Amino acid sequence: MVTNAFRPDAVKECGADLVEVSLDYASPVKHDNYRGVPGLWSRAYWLAKELYPGVAVRATWYGDNTEDILWLASEFPGRVVCMPAVLREGSRYYILEMDQETRSRLRDAGVILPRGCDHSRFATVDPYLNVYVCPFVRIYVGKFGIEALDRLSRLKGCPAAGQTIKMGRRNLVIGETSEG
């Protein structure tokens, strides 16, 4: 589960195998101003501390927050994943490239640096079955159908047929292909 920590108590209680908490800045003011939500940094930091070491701190590198990410790496050793920023110019998206010196500093501090952005490997499905390319960049790509969820439920490691999954305000019963 990847979260901005709008509801940290609910995230802590959900029992997810892995939680990634989004923290981009060491400063509550900078983080909250960027996100536009007062108090969000405090909730995200609290959640990361509560779940450590069973948490990943997901930081997006914007070019102005290298020192912040290094501080996060000292607070959460071995648990910080740094993603490049995906920026928009008109109707095109591009990945902000990090220079080699910054990459080396972050890597030396134990920050995990994936190659490129994970947009091409993962998708996000919200409680209403809307599919987005990323939990943070809300580019809508379509709707996840009940039939597709049913097919996925038959894969090894997925919930058993007949099991109810709570998704926001909806309950989905695995194995059923119609709502009602």
What does this structure look like?
This protein is an alpha/beta fold and 180 residues long. The protein has 2 domains: 113 residues, no CATH class; 36 residues, no CATH class. 29% of the residues lie in helices and 24% in strands. The strands form 4 sheets. A 4-stranded parallel beta sheet has the order 1-2-3-4, covered by helices on one side. It has a 3-stranded antiparallel beta sheet with strand order 7-8-9, with no helix packed on it. A hairpin with a 2-residue loop joins strand 10 and strand 11.
Short descriptors:
180 residues, alpha/beta, 2 domains, three-stranded antiparallel sheet, 6 helices, 11 strands, 29% helix, 24% strand, globular, disordered C terminus
Q: Brief description of this entry?
A:
With 180 residues, the chain is of the alpha/beta class. The chain has six helices and eleven strands.
Shape: globular
Structural class estimated from helices and strands: alpha/beta
First-last Cα distance: 27 Å
Largest sheet: 4 strands, parallel
Helix content: 25-40%
Low-confidence stretches: 172-180
Tally of alpha and pi helices: 6
Mean of pLDDT:
78
Fraction in beta strands: 15-25%
How many strand elements? 11
Rg calculated over all Cα atoms? 18 Å
- SSE arrangement, N to C: EHEHHEHEEEHEEEHEE
Please, how many domains? 2
Q: In which order are the strands of the major sheet placed?
A: 1-2-3-4
